[in-house]
Amino acid sequence: MTSHNQTCFFDPALRETVRDVATVLLAGGKGTRLHDLTANDSKPLVPFAGRNRIIDFAMANAARSGIARMLVATQFAPQTLHDYLPARWGQQFARNGILLRDGKNRYLGTADALRHNWPAICESTSDEVLVLAADHVYDMDYAALIQSHRASGAVATVAVDVVPVAQASAFGVMQAGADGRILSFLEKPANPPAMAGHPDKALVSMGVYVLSRRWLHSVMFDTHPDAMDFGHDVIPLAVQQGQASVYQLPVGANGETYWRDVGTLDALRLSQLDFIDAAPARLPRQTPVADWYLGKGSVAMTGAVVSHSADLTNTIVASGTFVPPGLVTGQDPHEDALWFTRTQAGTVLITQAMLDRRAVMRIPRSRICVTPVFDEPAYGKDKLHA
After folding, report:
1. Domain boundary, last residue among 239, 261, 283
2. What pTM did the predictor assign?
C-alpha cells in the first residue's frame, strides 16, 4: 500500500490545480448519539474547543487547499447552518462560492445527496468530484489528495487512517495492496479485518472521497440508479471493478496522524481534551484553553457559565447553561443518571433544561405552595371587578 508519511502541509503550488474541482460537503447529519446537543442544531454545528464548530475543520481544510466553490448538502435543522456558513466562511471562498442546498428530507443517503444536486455539480469543468464529511476533526490538504487520485488512474480514491482494530467496526474498513489499490471494503463490519502484518490495526475510511465525475454519473444514473450511499453502494462497486485506491492521511507536526469521528459524547469530550496542550491538528479558530477547559476532564461550550464552586468531572456543559454553585457531577453514577445524560464510559452531559428539571424536582414538599382556585365571579357586561 502506498504510504504518505510526509508531514501534512498545504502546498501553495497545488492550490491552483484544484480551484475548480466540484466539492460537496455532506452536512445533513442529525447526530442522535450526541443526545440533547443536537436537539435543535445539526451535528456539524456542535461547538468544539471554544469558538469552533465541528464543521469548521472541513471548511478550513477546503479554504487552505484552494477550493474555490463548495456545495453544502444539508437536511436536519438546516437554517442555523445556512446562517452560520456564509457569515463565518463566505469570504474564504469565491464570491457566492458556498452553495447551500437543503434536502428537505429527500436525500436518501450520502450518494443520493449528490444525485439530487447533479446539475450544480456539473457547473465545474473538472472531471473530479471531492466529497467531504462535515463531522470529523482533522487537518488535511485536499489538493494533495486530489493529486494522488489523478496519479493513481482510479475512478475512486478513499482517504484513510489507521485505527485500533477494536474500534474499526464503526467505520468502513478495507484492505489495500502495496500499490494502494483497495482489495476489499466492508461498511461497518461486526468483525473488521486487520491490516496485513498489523493484527491490532485496521485501515478505515475517513468519509472523504475523490471520484471521477463521468464514472459517478454512469453509476448513479445508468447502471445503479438505486445506489444511495457511498459506503454501502458506490465505493464497494469501484472496489469490485478494481478501480479504487487509498490515500493515507499524512502525519502531523507531532509525527502522528490525527482524525477523530466525534459523533458520540465520549468521543466529543475526549477529542477536545487532546487540544489542551500541543494541539494534534490546527484549530480553525484559536481560543484560550482556559475559556473552555474546566479541569478534571470537563469542557464547557460557548455561552456556558460555570460557578467556581462547582465540582465537575468528565462533564460536557452545553451552550447556554448556568451551572449553579456546589453542583457535583462525575462522581456518583446513579446521581448523574438521575438528572443528566451519562454514558457507560462516564461522560456526563449537562444542559439548562436538565438543571431546571433538577431544581424543580428537588424542591422539598414543605416548600411547595399550592394556590387554591375559586370559581370565576360573574361580571356584568360593562362592569369591572372591584
Report:
1. 261
2. 0.90
